[in-house]
Amino acid sequence: MKVDIIGDIHGCLPELEALFIKMGYDWKNGLPIHPDGRTPVFVGDLADRGPASIACIRLVYRLVIEENSALYVPGNHCDKLYRFFKSNPVQETHGLETTTAEYRDLSGKEQEEVKEQFLKLVEESPLYHVIPEVNAVVAHAGIKGEDIGNKNKRIKTFVLYGDITGEKLPDGRPVRRDWAQHYTGDRWIVYGHTPTKEPRFVNKTVNIDTGCVFGGHLTAFRLPEEEIVQVPSSMPYVEEKFRY
């Protein structure tokens, strides 16, 4: 098995299409197919902030659920959109408002279809993927080595939001501990969530959220090759959104 793990997309569909082409995928019937049978793996946060969140959801749904040719794990933005679609109380802020605006512009039939697709995508995907064929774990914001193979409320919070302290930065973002510094495992942990200017390798972890929606890049990490592939963003660059 060979995989192409793709960082946070956040509605940046043109960059996703360009990344697939750069990685050698062919487009057939509106879907990317690699001639060598490689498997795309999405680290979550498909939607919010970018211009084409609904189209990204539809594409990933087709790949993961209909074609069984890709893997997906949810991110914190996915979790919030899931709660919105389940009619739970959520604040339409921090990018969710862009997705809900797109959603409300759809016809009633299209709204129902997109909602059903996204709910199914989240419900039928694991919180994190363990991929033994390439000695890797894919988790949206990361995972502690000792938690791999387990699931509870604490682990879910960590996987979706990172190692948060409960404190807030002046701009409202949560304070996060640098958990990767303490990872001592021999499996790759591939994650996103926190925008970095370049892929961030620490021990045997790599953060591939390179802030596409903030003007950075959309990044993929290919295994077993341990190769990075990137395409530049078409979005305006927002310096303060990058942590490293």
Write the layout of secondary structure elements.
Layout lengths: L2 E4 L6 H10 L3 E3 L2 E3 L5 E4 L10 H14 L4 E2 L3 H10 L10 H9 L3 H16 L5 E3 L4 E3 L14 H9 L2 E5 L5 E3 L11 E4 L8 E3 L2 E3 L9 E7 L3 E6 L12
Parallel strand pairs: 1-4, 4-5, 7-10, 10-12
Antiparallel strand pairs: 1-13, 2-3, 6-7, 8-9, 11-12, 13-14
GO molecular function: phosphatase activity
Protein name: Calcineurin-like phosphoesterase domain-containing protein
InterPro entries: Ap4A_hydrolase (IPR050126), Calcineurin-like_PHP (IPR004843), Metallo-depent_PP-like (IPR029052), MPP_PrpE-like (IPR041780), Ser/Thr-sp_prot-phosphatase (IPR006186)
| Poorly predicted sequence stretches spanning 5 or more consecutive residues | none
The SS-based structural class is alpha/beta
What would CATH call the class? Answer: Alpha Beta
Sheet-strand content, in percent, reads 15-25%
Judging from the principal axes of the Cα atoms, what is the shape? globular
GO molecular function: phosphatase activity
Organism: Halobacillus mangrovi
InterPro entries: Ap4A_hydrolase, Calcineurin-like_PHP, Metallo-depent_PP-like, MPP_PrpE-like, Ser/Thr-sp_prot-phosphatase
Protein name: Calcineurin-like phosphoesterase domain-containing protein
Can you summarize this structure?
With 244 residues, the chain is α/β, with parallel strands linked by helices. The chain has helices spanning 13-22, 53-66, 76-85, 96-104, 108-123, 153-161; strands spanning 3-6, 26-28, 31-33, 39-42, 71-72, 129-131, 136-138, 164-168, 174-176, 188-191, 200-202, 205-207, 217-223, 227-232.
